[in-house]
Design brief:
Elements (H helix, E strand, L loop, with lengths): L2 H9 L12 E10 L2 E15 L6 E8 L2 E8 L5 E8 L27 H10 L16
Length: 140
């Protein structure tokens, strides 16, 4: 393994959610104000994901008081406390720049059904129960 790749691998965060364009996320970012540090939450829709490895970043857009605000975050930055995926959007493009020209209901994104439920089950470690008529230890 290359020395640079090894250094990058050491600096990557172990647990990073899979992000795609259209996902609604809450990003908990650390903000330094003088000598104090606090966590600021930025919630919005992911409009793009670029790069890979240690250089991966994503842009989140939200509309606040009628003004669109976009922020770009580095996925593996130490300034990012955590990333919570609230919804998985069903979109066909990789870049959602068209949302900049839309407001209200026109800027809505459909939700991918079953995607969030599958993620929640994996996090809890639940195992689906066996169906009726089959016993444990028997194969179908």
């Amino acid at each position: 393994m290359n020395v640079i790749q090894q250094l990058e691998k050491e600096q990557q965060k172990a647990k990073v959610p899979a992000l795609r364009a259209g996902d609604t996320v809450k990003v908990h970012a650390k903000v330094v104000e003088g000598t104090r540090e606090r966590i600021q939450v930025f919630e919005g829709i992911v409009i793009r994901v670029t790069g890979g490895g240690l250089r991966q970043n994503f842009t989140v857009r939200r509309v606040t008081h009628g003004v669109g605000v976009e922020r770009t975050f580095l996925v593996h930055s130490p300034r990012i406390d955590r990333i919570d995926v609230l919804r998985h959007g069903d979109v066909r493009q990789g870049r959602l720049y068209y949302l900049r020209g839309k407001v209200g209901k026109g800027a809505r994104i459909r939700e991918r059904r079953g995607a969030l439920a599958a993620v929640a089950e994996e996090a809890e470690g639940e195992v689906p129960e066996a169906t009726e008529g089959t016993e444990q230890g028997q194969e179908k």
